Amino acid sequence: MADKDASNTPNTNTIYSQSHRNQTYSSTNNPPSEEPPRRALKPGLYVPLLAFFSPETEELDESTVAQHAIRMAKAGAMGLITQGTYGEAAHLSHTERARITRTTRHAVAAAGYPQLPLIVGCGAPSTSETIELCQDAYESGADYALILPPSTYRAQYTLPSLKSFFQDVAGASPIPVLVYNYPAVTGVDLDAETLASLAGHPNLVGCKLTCNDMGKLNRLVASVQPATAVERGSGFMCFGGSADATLQTLVGGAGDAGPFGV
Fold first, then answer.
1. 193 neighbors 207 (Cβ within 8 angstroms)
2. Which of 4, 163, 208, 216 is catalytic?
3. CA distances (Å), 129 to each of 70, 73, 134, 177, in order?
4. Known Pfam families for this protein (predicted)?
């Protein structure tokens, strides 16, 4: 678990501070010797996908998972998200998470959308398990990891310790990381200044704000200057987190990753 009294100094523990980026891509979608395709995040609407189960056995319904992903791709989604709040991540084993990610990646590729970015929720209570989930997501075909702050002992965390958590994870993750701010679920609400400071990490490339605080979103956008439909921007993407925030996020110069369509 991230040290609750950690300072702003980057962690020098080699487990977390050294890059663990793999030189090969082990998803069955690509031969192991090839680098993964580069799927950039672009401004637009990103859809958090549902997880589906058999009503009789409660086993994963991979056929429906695939059909749902293809439907959202055909509808014009700029990217897809698995293992988010709507993806039942809290109730899935690591193996089930990987199966959903692989199924989604293979389904959209086979349907003619191989360049669609896939963001995968990888949040966990500890730093080490979060890194493990990032690795699993990478091996299953994910392009980006979406990570909630740890919240089991949230009353004991300080902003410096939360920053250290994200920096440690980003330093070890084989895929770029987005910060997921969802205080209604975690009880942790990261402010614009903290998020802007995390934007300086080379492997922290964006955030999803499901706090629906438009003032925070606009302050953050003004600070980090994300990409828009007409500007290349800094490379740090800012997403609103619900359909209700779509207009405000687009006006403010951000994308949206709200629950659009099922």
1. no
2. 208
3. 30, 30, 9, 15
4. DHDPS
Q: Is 91 exposed, middle or buried (0-12, 13-18, 19+ CB in 10 A)?
A: exposed
The sign of the torsion formed by the CA atoms of 222, 253, 47, 206 equals: negative
Pure H helices in the chain? 14-17, 62-74, 94-110, 127-139, 159-172, 183-186, 192-198, 214-224, 246-252
Identify the residue whose tokens are 């993964």. 36
Task: Please give the span between the terminal C-alpha atoms of the chain, in angstroms, as a whole number.
Answer: 35
Kindly state the tokens that stand for 231: 């500007």
Rounded to 10 deg, the angle between the 62-74 and 94-110 helix axes is 50
Q: What is the mean pLDDT of the chain?
A: 82
pLDDT tens track for 239-254: 888 777 777 777 666 5
Give the phi and the psi of residue 80 in degrees, each rounded to 5: -125, 150
The amino acid occupying position 113 is Y
pLDDT 10s digits, 198-238:
999 999 999 999 887 888 888 888 888 876 666 766 778 88
* Residue-wise pLDDT tens digits, 59-71: 999 999 999 999 9
